Amino acid sequence: MRLLIIVLLLFFNINFLYVQDLKNYNLNKTFRIIRKFDNLLSSDNKEYIFYIDASYLFSPEGKLIYSNNIYTAQKFLENDSNNMVYSGIIKSNTPPENYIYMLLHKRLYDYMSKNKSTYIDKLMQSDLQTFYDDIREYIFKEEIYTGNFKYIRFLSKTKYKYYTGKD
Description:
This protein is α+β, with helices and mostly antiparallel strands.
C-alpha cells in the first residue's frame, strides 16, 4: 500500500513539473512538420487528403501571442477554472508543432471549403502543380499573424510514408 502511494505521489509530481515547463519552448527556431491532413471538405462535402511537409518560423509578435496563450491557459488551470477547456488548449497547442499543424489545417480547410469538388478534381487532373501553387499562395497570404511559412511541399503518399513511417 505504501509503495502504491509513493508511486502515485511521484507520478503526480512529475506531471506537475511537466505542466509548469510547457511555456518554455524555444520559439526562435524554424519548426518543420510532416503531417497528413484529412477530413478536408469541398463546398459540396467531398473529402480530400493531403500529405504536407512545411517549415514555419514564428514572428516576434507570434512568439508573444503563443507564449501568452499558453501562460494564460496554465494560470486558469492552476485556479481550477474550466479545466477541460484549458487543458484542451494546452494539449492542442503544445508542442508548437501542434499549433502549426492547426494553423495549416485551418487554412487548408478554408481554401478547400470555398470550392466545389468538380473544380478541385478538374484542377487535380489537368494541372496539379498550379492547384498546389494556388493553395500555397493562399496560405502564405492568409497566415501573417503569428509567423511565416518558409515552405510548403505537397508529398505523395509513398514519400510521406518514407519520411514518417506512417500510412
